[in-house]
Amino acid sequence: MSGLDITDLSKHYGSFHAVKSISLGVLPGEFVVMVGPSGCGKSTLLRMIAGLETVDGGMIRVGDMDVTHAEPSKRGVAMVFQNYALYPHMTVDGNMGFGLRMAGASREVIAAAVSRAAGILRIADHLPKLPKGLSGGQKQRVAIGRAITRAPKIFLFDEPLSNLDAELRTRMRVELGRLHQDLGATMIYVTHDQVEAMTMADRIVVLRDGEIEQMGPPLDLYNRPANRFVAGFLGAPRMNIVAARIVAAEDRVVTVEAACLGRIPLELDVTEGRALLPGEPVTLGLRPEAFRGGDLPLRLIVQLVESLGRETLVHGHPIGVGTALGDPEGNGGDGAEDALVIQLPDQQRPRMGDAFEARTDRRALYLFDADGRTRRFARVG
Ligand SMILES: Nc1ncnc2c1ncn2[C@@H]1O[C@H](COP(=O)(O)OP(=O)(O)OP(=O)(O)O)[C@@H](O)[C@H]1O
Ligand SMILES: [Mg+2]
Asked: Of ligand 1's atoms, which has the minimum distance to the CA of residue 44?
């Protein structure tokens, strides 16, 4: 088992800087999930690790071996793509054994490896078929099987489940988790799926514009996002962001005012960050699930109700509480939204157009300064 070390890795396409000096260490056996908006460089990074893309600067090591400029087949890395990339004219058997055949393995070794992988993935019955005779989920298993037979040191997955329907996706997610356990292999997995990221990852890496915004265990990132971008990126529905302003600041205690929440005194964590001064525009974050009661009432005009059975999502415009902010809809701030989403743990059905009051707790608030950085605080008063 090997880990992966990436140091100052960089990639330009012409004048466009797609990957900006990224450094990342992946432990042997670790499952790392990479997430980030479309175009942030996830696939480029995987392709550089796989050797399918040249590197402008930096170093890639697999275990102790510098593979920065090595041939793809010499890296001990196997990649699984979103579109499966199977050879259409080859049977499942032929597709799965392809890598080993290219590497010059004997017929017996190939047969044993294919049979083992087919067993793990439960596709043994399909070995004589051509890819066109398989369902999407079966094709993806073949693509994963082709990676397994090569016994790579590191598996790279680029959105492997995104072409599958919801149910199959869930099943494959569980199976991939099991595969990771059984093989004990190092895996790097790119996805847009929140559930995959939260449930499969030992660590999540959040990328944005070719740089790492934050990395850490899923719940650390969810509970303690470093900034507003990470806070908004992890979690579905997204965290609500509300425009606010610092209206008073004395020592560590600042009073934050938001049109829909009124004035809230918060005691900042002394150990971090610069002082927040009166007048500074800030934002407050509230996760949709944070409305389960508490000291802060929030009223909104219901615009849309989504009943999901186990829970209900209420979308609406917040109603101001008559503060000096003079912006009754609570919008206008950088990155702030004018509609909020509240997740209720039951089957309430508030009527569209009605005012709806929910209560949240100030301990559930997130505070982001004008630069979007998270500012931690203790509860006051
Ligand atoms: N061969 C290429 N030539 C020029 N630009 C490219 C090339 N490949 C990627 N890019 C650009 O580099 C950036 C990163 O692309 P990449 O495919 O890595 O994004 P991604 O994070 O995988 O996005 P998605 O989530 O949509 O798959 C994008 O802006 C893309 O347009
Ligand atoms: Mg991609």
From this structure: 18
